[in-house]
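Progress note, project year one: complex with flavin-adenine dinucleotide.
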Amino acid sequence: MGTGTPVIHDVVGIGFGPSNLSLATALEEHSANVPEHPLTAAFFERQPSFGWHRNMLLPSTTMQVSFLKDLATFRNPSSRFSFVSYLHASDRLANFANTHTFFPTRQEFHQYLEWVEANFTDHVSYNSEVTGIALPPDATPGPDQYLQIEVRDRGGSGTRLVNARNVTVSTGLVPHMPVGVDSDDRVWHSSEFLDRFRQMDPHALKRVAVVGAGQSAAEIARFLYDSLHHAQVFAIVPSYGYSIADSTPFANKVFDPDAVDDYYFGTNRTRDAFWQYHKNTNYSVVDDDVIRDLHRRVYDEDVSGSRRMHFLNLSRVSDVKRAGNETRVSLESLLDTDSQDLDVDILVCATGYDSMDPSGLLGDLDRYCLRDTSGRHQVGRDYRLVTVPPLSCGIYLQGGTEHTHGLTSSLLSNIAVRSGEIADSIAQRRAVDEPGAA
Ligand SMILES: Cc1cc2nc3c(=O)[nH]c(=O)nc-3n(C[C@H](O)[C@H](O)[C@H](O)COP(=O)(O)OP(=O)(O)OC[C@H]3O[C@@H](n4cnc5c(N)ncnc54)[C@H](O)[C@@H]3O)c2cc1C
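Model obtained:
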């Protein structure tokens, strides 16, 4: 390439969580199979280093997905990036087998992800936030078209433009706070939990509250109860009690790779059935062992006659007032018209996440991306946004496709297969543009 010719990557990946890390492995394996036409990639991640939900790496928390659903195995069972390869490299394969579990701790899975990531340090830039995607001013549709990706250096050295024929938007879920509640140094979303908790003097935390009915809420309630022996812990749940996550074998099939086709090519009735019958596999539900753990603690308190774990069920947060270190939480009962105020030292909102929405990054380009009658992006089976001229580059989504591809959109279950499908789509489209480059 001569001086002045811009470098154009085949793919720029926005975000470097498990989805784009899995894509990196798929691209690497593709390039190993077709060495004469490697696919070039660069990834940008706004965190200072690799991290997967670090603020929720609570002691003893386990994965909610089988270790076989790692970054690569379902796409390529002989991949060197599998969890089994990691165990082997760490000299723990035999001892892991002795644990008789499919569900490693999140700590161990995080180490696995870091082990894979170490292979791609040359391809990823940290502290690098993508702030927008655009076409160059006089872009015309066709094989020569490329996108300009604006990357802001969070270390303070300004912004730069990076060029690519395709982008994969994999920016993850967006924390959701209760309506009207803002986070600050005493009111936290669960996604900030450990960082914030470590900054506190634990002895100063005498009354703590967690709001939410899902896995994170239950895990945080258990953690606070076990870590703060002197504290009163309030679990505010809108339901009557925590509900169990259905992980039984027939229901779990909704996370199989085949289910994506059934969902994608199904009718609206098919898709409604998925949500109606199987929402309880993932949303606002808690693993059986965590529920039993918490219940054990409450029962032990019944026996001992001393109470510091308080369940405020059928309750919703209607208001939070903050003054200095004081936090007053107003609760509305769903049982009657009663309301009560609760004074706490910290309030943790484990109130879930909104799904990924690429609109902010797309900016002006969004008008070339088709939407369905409900205003949602149209997405091809290959996870590529459906676009119209002048936009002909590929914009792929890893996340934000619940409406088209179903329940696995924001989960780990299908990322090995999904990233393989995206890598294949990029390679096949390039082969059409440049015959011979499959
Ligand atoms: C506590 C917790 C536990 C979970 N456990 C499981 C589980 O056991 N099994 C399961 O299937 N799912 C689980 N999930 C669901 C979760 O979505 C997936 O585990 C996984 O994180 C999805 O990977 P991702 O790469 O798509 O998104 P993320 O892991 O969220 O990664 C997105 C990355 O993009 C970066 N980013 C965002 N915007 C930009 C930008 N503009 N520029 C540059 N970088 C950006 C973020 O910093 C982040 O690192 C869990 C979720 C949580 C919150």
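The two ends are 21 Å apart (CA to CA).
Residues 249-281 form one domain.
No further modelling is planned for this target in the current period.
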